[in-house]
Design brief:
Elements (H helix, E strand, L loop, with lengths): L6 E6 L3 E5 L5 H9 L3 E3 L4 E3 L6 H14 L4 E4 L5 E3 L2 H19 L1 H9 L31
Parallel strand pairs: 1-5
Antiparallel strand pairs: 1-2, 3-4, 5-6
Helix pairs in contact: 2-3, 3-4
Amino acid sequence: MMTDPNMVFSADPRHGLVARSGWEQEEARTVLRDLGWEWAEELHALIPPVDVPEADAGLQAVEELHLHGHRTGYAVGPYGTMRLTLDRAEQVFTKVTRRESCEARPDRDDQNAHTGRTESRRSAYNDVAVSQSPVAPEDPEPPAI
């Protein structure tokens, strides 16, 4: 679990993938805006561009945030936020987010069904098959001295 990442991704039951940050994280929000993410006032969060699948938009966002030195996480419940490395983000966004967004918005995923996409796919970043095992949280980061 990770305390206070710069950007936290989560799945909104009505809108799918969203990204939130504290008010002081303007630089992290700017990175996402440059990638086409838009501010949704009613959610008080950034949402991915509609012309890119959510999982791919999330992976690109995590990669760019890491390149700019920002820490990322995924909201997993009342006990904290799971730290997102790029390979962990691949697992989370392809499994958890798609499952939750599929339940929330079946009309958007119908387009993916008609194009012949499958859930089992190869990683776009590591050229490794996406793991089918459950995603387990990492150990907390050691305190900075």
